[in-house]
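USER: For my understanding, would you kindly supply a protein sequence with its structure tokens?

ASSISTANT:
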Amino acid sequence: AYEVDIDEVYRTLNIVFGKYYVNDFNLYGRIFHVNLGAEGEYRDDLRDYSYVYVRSKNGNLIPISSLIKTEFIPDAPILERFNMFVSAKVLGNPKPGYTSGDAIKAISEVAKEVLPPGYTIAWAGTSYQEVKVQTKGNLALIYALIFIYLILVALYESWSAPLAILLSAPFALFGAALGLNLFGLQNDVYFQAGLLVLIGLSAKNAILIVEFAEERLKRGMGLVEATIEAAYLRYRPIMMTSFAFIAGAIPLMFASGAGANSRMIIGTTVVMGMTFATLFGVFFIPLFYYVVVKLRERLSKITGRK
């Protein structure tokens, strides 16, 4: 055994190949740091360590080459940290014809395939804000449906009738998603804002039918007759108001100039969504209402409540 303290080896290597802090001293009213280290010409080559010796506990000088083994390994010149973890920063811009959302999706998919266990990715800057907004946008959509349902429950004093109204929303959402894919647009905050508008507009069309049918039921009219009359008499007002809105939003689909992409997204969302909600809603909303009322009547017979 060489009887060499490992701390002495580290200290010697630090002195020769690094900077070893000794102390401070005052001179001319200033404080100077004293650092001990070898001249640059004696530490440029890795083989220089073979000329370095370290003193053992019994006073002998032991060549440090007999105590350590050198090996070249790849390493980053600078180690950065992100959220207190060692990280590697990746910067880039999407190719022409692709959006930032497409780039975020592609990077996420590649990261799942190539990163080993224990590694993950985290977004920063505008990418982080975009990912965060997408998550909040989905929550806003859910909250919108819940609040609309609760408001309608209070309005009609019924838990069942509002279901027929909210069942019109999937047509609008499907049309908006279809338009987004057909035109190759991005799912961003403008698309999500358009969805919130669509939920309210599609619910408005359904309210026209459901409210009219509910009034006829209270007057003693049969369910089938009330549903058919509501669909027939409310057909024209629904078509007129809906297509007037669609016609007014069509220019947004073909916007140009600065900020055109955002206008195209929200225009395509509301136009395609309202088109589907109107064309299919006027036929399916009466059907939904009929089914919901039938279920309500059966439940009332079982529970004994009106």
